[in-house]
């Protein structure tokens, strides 16, 4: 699972932008205004991406 951009993408609205991660820890979504810790956002996106990948490629 490629973790690239997982801490730059807002889980709810799906907006991904470099501007969503202005510092190591801050995540202000420029599309919807949601604010969170960037690690929390990434930790939410990684399992979701894994499930999507699993469902797209059944064994």
Q: Can you offer a commentary on this structure?
A:
There is one protein chain. The chain is α+β, with helices and mostly antiparallel strands and 59 residues long. The chain has one domain (1-51). 32% of the residues lie in helices and 10% in strands. It has one helix and two strands, in the order ββα. It has one helix at 38-56; strands at 26-28, 35-37. The chain has a two-stranded antiparallel ribbon with strand order 1-2. Strand 1 (26-28) and strand 2 form a beta hairpin. It is elongated, with a radius of gyration of 12 Å. 15% of the residues are buried. The mean pLDDT is 91. This is Transposase. InterPro entries: Cas12f1-like_TNB. GO terms for molecular function: DNA binding. Pfam families: Cas12f1-like_TNB. Residues 2-46 form the Cas12f1-like TNB domain.
In short:
The protein has 1 helix and 2 strands; from the N terminus they run ββα.
Q: Would you spell out the secondary-structure blueprint of this structure?
A:
Elements: E1 26-28, E2 35-37, H1 38-56
What distinguishing features does this structure have?
alpha+beta, Cas12f1-like_TNB, elongated, about 60 residues, two-stranded antiparallel ribbon, single chain, DNA binding, about 10% strand
Largest beta sheet: strand ordering: 1-2
Strand content: 5-15%
Number of strands: 2
Please state the CA-atom Rg, rounded to the nearest Å.
Answer: 12 Å
**What would you call the quaternary organization?**
single chain
Summed up, the domain count is 1
Q: State the end-to-end distance.
A: 16 Å
SSE-based structural type: alpha+beta
Bin the helical content: 25-40%
Please tell me what the overall shape is.
elongated
User: Main beta sheet: strand number and arrangement?
Assistant: 2 strands, antiparallel
Low-confidence parts, pLDDT < 50 over ≥5 residues? Answer: none
Average predicted confidence as pLDDT: 91
The helix-strand sequence is: EEH
- What count of helical segments does DSSP give? 1
